[in-house]
Design brief:
Number of helices of chain B: 6
Strand order of the largest sheet of chain B: 3-2-1-4-5
Oligomer: heterodimer
Structural class of chain A: alpha+beta
Strand content of chain A: over 45%
Number of helices of chain A: 2
CATH superfamily of the largest domain in chain A: F0F1 ATP synthase delta/epsilon subunit, N-terminal
Number of strands of chain A: 8
Distance between the termini of chain A: 23 Å
Largest sheet of chain A: 8 strands, mixed
CATH architecture of the domain at 45-236 in chain B: 3-Layer(aba) Sandwich
CATH class of the domain at 45-236 in chain B: Alpha Beta
CATH class of the largest domain in chain A: Mainly Beta
CATH architecture of the largest domain in chain A: Sandwich
Largest interface: A-B, 26 and 29 residues
Radius of gyration of chain A: 16 Å
Chain lengths: 133, 280
């Protein structure tokens, strides 16, 4: 299989800049897999697991929000956060999950519930990715 | 006797030494903070560059006419986001930003609301303009999380027609000696440089994709601008305090000379008096 150039950036800096064979990300309309030579494409991302095939290995990451864009040569992911499975702080994610669950169990304020829901989703995604390397 | 003037000089030396200590301390604090601020600024560059590339690509799309973010509408109300510092004593940093904003206003005369970032912005525009949201007044504390909130809020307001153009004034960090206040238009998005229109496939449809991406895009623009402005502020303060410290040093050596002269004059006079007394 042939490779294409993949760049993954977040506000905290460049996460990946190199070649990849395949990338699967979760967009707002579902998972999208991209190979070399894709037609020009753009889609907003949501919270979910991202999979990248580098060489012969699949690497997974928690990808949170942002946008993916592809053309013939290059795929760009500008994510709000993008953490490889090995780098995820599971303890922090567990804490965030517990906090969010507590709020969902007790609060009735809609804005607060929405916020907690987002937090819970991010935490669950992180835990899931970290546990399924 | 020269004692009175000697005491005055001594007092002035003391007070200048005190000032010098403060300016020196401020310089050191600014330079240690600057290292972190610069690091943050450099890390944010690839992110905003990637976003700009993506927006540029969307802007060259044949579907651009579908989205309010590209087409714009008749301008009646304008929102202007102004990023300045939280504190003074940073040379011309704050006043340069405000000068740039006023210059911009003199060219574009629309009903304008200010979205202030930085306490100085809040103070400067308080009497003259209406604010959109005053909760992000502390520039140094703005995190990427805040920027996402700001991005969603401004995007929603633009979609709802609460303003028709969105401007941003921040300080561009060129190098240690040059920081330049700049005004950029965020909404509507600029025309693409490339003339030819390309077809770009979007999932969901073009307009929805653009709308979904916009909050993050605005966040990336504002985050980079804040990082650049903050680094500029610290550099500017460091330079100003450096100048102040060396001015103080100059004054101190001048005063020390005066003091020594006065002391010498006093001694000479005393000796003359003693000699005169002994001779009589």
């Amino acid at each position: 299989m042939s490779e294409f150039k993949l760049t993954v950036v977040t506000p905290d800096g460049m996460v990946y800049d190199g070649m990849a064979e395949s990338v699967i990300v979760r967009t707002t309309t579902g998972n999208v897999g991209i190979l070399k030579g894709h037609a020009p494409f753009a889609a907003p991302l949501t919270v979910g697991e991202a999979r990248v095939k580098i060489g012969n290995d699949w690497k997974t990451a928690a990808c949170i929000g942002g946008v993916v864009s592809a053309d013939k040569e290059e795929v760009k992911i500008a994510a709000n956060a993008f953490e490889w499975a090995d780098n995820i702080d599971v303890v922090r994610a567990e804490n965030a999950k517990n906090e969010a669950e507590k709020i969902i169990g007790s609060s009735s304020d809609i804005a607060q519930l929405d916020k907690a829901k987002g937090k819970l989703l991010r935490a669950i995604t992180r835990i899931h990715v970290a546990n399924n390397k | 006797m020269a004692g009175g003037s000697m005491k005055d000089i001594k007092l002035r030396i003391k007070s200048i030494q005190g000032t010098r200590q403060i300016t020196k301390a401020m310089q050191l604090v600014a330079s240690s903070k600057l290292r972190r601020a610069k690091e943050r600024m450099e890390l944010s560059v690839p992110y905003s560059k990637a976003f700009n590339d993506i927006i540029d690509k969307l802007s060259a799309s044949a579907d651009r006419g579908d989205s309010i973010f590209f087409t714009g509408r008749e301008v009646k109300k304008v929102c202007h986001c102004v990023i300045a510092g939280d504190r003074g004593l940073a040379g011309g940093y704050n006043s340069n930003v405000f000068k740039e904003v006023m210059r911009h206003f003199s060219e574009h005369n629309y009903e304008t609301k200010i979205f202030p970032i930085g306490r100085k912005t809040l103070e400067y525009f308080k009497k003259r303009f209406e604010f959109i949201d005053e909760s992000y007044a502390t520039a140094a504390d703005i995190s990427i999380g805040n920027c996402f909130k700001i991005g969603s809020m401004l995007t929603e307001m633009y979609v709802n027609g609460e303003f028709d153009e969105l401007f941003l004034t921040y300080t561009h960090y060129k190098n240690v000696l040059h920081q330049e206040p700049l005004t950029v238009r965020i909404f509507p998005l600029p025309e693409s440089d490339s003339e030819k229109r390309t077809q770009i496939e979007c999932e969901p449809a073009f307009a929805s994709t653009v709308k979904a991406v916009m909050p993050s895009y605005v966040a990336s623009v504002i985050y980079t601008a804040v990082a650049q402005s903050y680094a500029s502020e610290l550099t500017s303060r460091q330079n100003a305090m450096d100048t102040a410290t060396s001015n103080a040093d100059e004054m101190l050596s001048e005063l020390q000379l005066q003091y020594n002269r006065a002391r010498q004059a006093g001694i000479t006079q005393e000796i003359t008096e003693i000699v005169a007394g002994a001779n009589s």
